[in-house]
Amino acid sequence: MDLLDIRNLTIEMDGPHGRVRVLDKVSLQLKEGEVHSLVGESGSGKSLLAKAVIGVLNPLWDVTADRLWWNGKDLLAMTPKQRRAITGRDMAMIFQDPLAYLDPNSTVAEQITEAIPAGDVTGTFMHRRIDRKTRVAQLLHRVGIRDHDAIMKSYPYELSEGIAQKVSIAIAIAHRPKLLIADEPTTAMEPSTKDQIQRLLGKLAVSQSMSVLLITQDVASILPATQRVSLLYCGQMMEHGDTETVLNRPAHPYTDAMIKMSLQAHAELEPKSKLPSLPGAVPTLRHMPIGCRLGPRCPYAQKQCVKAPLVRHRDEQSYYCHFPLNEPEA
Amino acid sequence: MSHLLEAVDLFKTFRPRRSWPWSKKSVALEPTSFTLEAGETLAIMGETGSGKSTLSKIIAGVEAPSGGELYLNGQKLNYAQSKRRCQNIRMVFQDSDKSLNQQLTVGQQLEEPLLFNREMSNSERKQLIHSTLRKVGLLAEHAAFYPHMLSTGQKQRVAIARAIILDPQIVVADEALVALDPSVRAQIINLMLDLQKDMGISYIIVTHSPQIVKHIADKILILYRGKMIAFNETERLLTEKQQPYVQALLHEHLINHSQITGNSSAKVTE
Ligand SMILES: Nc1ncnc2c1ncn2[C@@H]1O[C@H](COP(=O)(O)OP(=O)(O)OP(=O)(O)O)[C@@H](O)[C@H]1O
Ligand SMILES: Nc1ncnc2c1ncn2[C@@H]1O[C@H](COP(=O)(O)OP(=O)(O)OP(=O)(O)O)[C@@H](O)[C@H]1O
Ligand code: SF4
Ligand SMILES: [Mg+2]
Ligand SMILES: [Mg+2]
Hints:
The structure holds 2 protein chains of 2 kinds.
Chain A: E1 4-15, E2 18-30, E3 35-39, H1 46-54, E4 62-64, E5 67-70, E6 73-74, H2 80-90, E7 91-94, H3 98-101, H4 108-115, H5 125-142, H6 148-152, H7 161-173, E8 179-183, H8 191-207, E9 211-216, E10 228-233, E11 236-242, H9 243-248, H10 253-261, H11 263-266, E12 312-314, E13 317-319
Parallel strand pairs in A: 3-9, 3-10, 7-8, 8-9
Antiparallel strand pairs in A: 1-2, 1-4, 1-5, 5-6, 10-11, 11-13, 12-13
Chain B: E1 5-14, E2 26-36, E3 41-46, H1 52-60, E4 67-72, E5 75-77, H2 82-88, E6 89-92, H3 96-99, H4 106-117, H5 122-135, H6 152-164, E7 170-174, H7 182-199, E8 202-206, H8 210-216, E9 219-224, E10 227-233, H9 234-239, H10 244-251, H11 257-261
Parallel strand pairs in B: 3-8, 3-9, 6-7, 7-8
Antiparallel strand pairs in B: 1-2, 1-4, 4-5, 9-10
Iron/sulfur cluster binds near residues 292, 295, 309, 321 and 323 of chain A.
């Protein structure tokens, strides 16, 4: 059974320019222990999808879905209190801006200690004190912080952004959640640290059967351990499936473009040559194209594309496009 | 022949919080020297907290160095000489939302540096603003827009327009590409390369991404805990054998700390 099962999730909101559909029939499934990357450019609705899962959407918005299940339970049918209980126990989230999320008035040690479940430390008062301290140090080591003594005593603003991000990861994994949603957790980090964190997330997924939903803008930065990948554009799902298959034989023009525009692909080009890019910019909510929202920027678009494509399947991947690429020879 | 930019032993120290008057200052940047020629791109790399932002802010004159000298075309630049510096060295920040003034139109923001630094008539100013907007791939109409009406990529273009409007010799960009979407990032890199070809601008860019560095940098300066441990042409750094830390930064491998510092204090308890 899927840990998380989302079918045709749609979110609509009333903006100053009328009603807009910010998520358009998005489906996503996540198994226990699976590492899943959600890729899309800014404004594609990645954070909204994450917020729908943890249940912190604006109550004024129209949220509909054929299914929004957590562990077989219908999240949409729950009271806010029931949902908060599930979110608090089973889920954790790391945010794009760690400094905004950390408490500026307490030290790193205090904040991590607070996140360690009370039941985890037992014994006499002194015992608990020492135990907590070693646990904090352990958590810091796990996220690749070496000089834990100095960092434990620091306040968030004394940390560089990368270190602050690591600290927020340590806090997030302290209560051993079932699902960790990492909303672009590694932009502020140098690639070697990023590597370390990604391996760590991959390792945790296996050893604690924790699922990870990694949200990112660039296919280049998806976890090496990612089993599946989903690509979102302007609130519509473009393609999802097995990472290897999708990246090696993309069916969707958007996936294809994202691969060609990724940092990894730049390394193979002649220095200072022109980089490939999709023309134009991501449309604003006010001017969403009808049908397939990639239409105006898609090199393969034709008349049919004003009708939204239905899902199609090919081996290990599913995609939404009238004119798929890399079709096997008939 | 003098260099376009020459840094001699620039350094920066900070007084730690909760310190005694006699306690040692922490060193953000150890004495660093390098040179940059016209039309070249220098990339500054290093792990988090290694002093990249500190160095780039000193170069752009946003922050004063604790010591050392900076020469532009052979002439010494003082921290207080902000006018000469800001005409020749401009900075683009990572967050265009914070660096653009939300209350002013794009045109007004581009006008600001002109009012302070150039003697021009109104119509000349307007012309220059429009031609600069076109250079960065925007339209003259965008002068009337407020920042909130623009997309992230367009805002970053405005930030670049503001940096190049005074026809600077050097543009310093601290992580200015990291927050951009892949398609916009590729467009902005193409734009920067075009401007370099047309206007002969030199760039000093701070980035974590070895792929971007390989693509646009002629030289690389590498910092490790505030110390410059490498400064060389990109070609040579990529082809010659390097120490593990440099290797890791350029090829995205894991850093093994004991190899660099020669101690084993980095034991990991699991
Ligand atoms: N509170 C809100 N009120 C109005 N519109 C919103 C709100 N939150 C998000 N949106 C809109 O919904 C769309 C999706 O936003 P979302 O934050 O999910 O994007 P994202 O994919 O996470 O982008 P990024 O990569 O920049 O974080 C955007 O167009 C955004 O403007
Ligand atoms: N205002 C300040 N007060 C005290 N220490 C500072 C200050 N600014 C920077 N530092 C310290 O100087 C060192 C270098 O910081 P800097 O911001 O230059 O690093 P960086 O290489 O830009 O890191 P990042 O990749 O995270 O942006 C760090 O150890 C930092 O803690
Ligand atoms: S449906 Fe049409 S516009 Fe959309 S991705 Fe496919 S070809 Fe392009
Ligand atoms: Mg987001
Ligand atoms: Mg910095």
